[in-house]
Here is the input.
Amino acid sequence: MDHEFYYQFLKPDPSLDSFVENIGMFHNPSDSAKEVVVIPDGRIDLFFIRSGSENDSFSVFLIGLETAPEQRSIPPGTIAFVISFRPLAVEYILHTSIAHLINTARTLPDDFWNMAINDFKDLEIFSKTISKKVIELLPEEADERKRKLFDLIYSSNGEMSVKELSEKTGWSSRQINRYFNQQFGLSLKAYSNILRFRASLEHIAEGKLFPELNFTDQTHFIKEIKKFSGVAPKELSKNKNDRFILLSVLKQK
Here is the structure.
């Protein structure tokens, strides 16, 4: 068991909830690569990765939003720590745009946020250190329209229409979509579809292979699941060899 791929996630401090979804780590201590499928989840990930137990340094990557499934191979000896941001953090914590990072990543300096090797001893230490750094970066105030927009998008699992979101936030549909395209590289509708897919994963993890959310019909449901995961709901539910880590996490709950 000690030589099997494993992962763990922690919820952040409540004060970070608008900006951080969770903080986690995974480790592949085995002698062989772990094949995984990364599927869209609506988060922006900041990864600190070390490959090989002989190497002390961690490489840092900022991964943008994904819109399609991607096969990845995690080399033997890899250990990674990650802080998964909600979109609001892109502007207020990371102070950047990720429009150019759709389905790709950007390498950051190894000394990003001045993380030290001792900060990666275990997940609890990493979580405390990274949370402290994010808390120091919290804005004194954020645009309430944006905060409310994301609260509504998340609470509705992406099912609220652009028109309704516009009315509830007092922010025009055109302005919202301009913000999304400039900041994240996709439209609000495209992002909402990712969140709806992600919410469907919770149902699939429970063995519910029919649409529980507002898909047009079963055919539309299957098409959307295949679009974002690469496989039909039935195969996704089986999750052979724990390839879909996000689904494995949901099944643990």
Q: What stands out?
A: The CA atoms of residues 142 and 201 lie 31 Å apart. The chain has a mean pLDDT of 91. The domain at 144-252 is CATH 1.10.10.60 (Arc Repressor Mutant, subunit A). The chain has two domains: 6-137, 144-252.
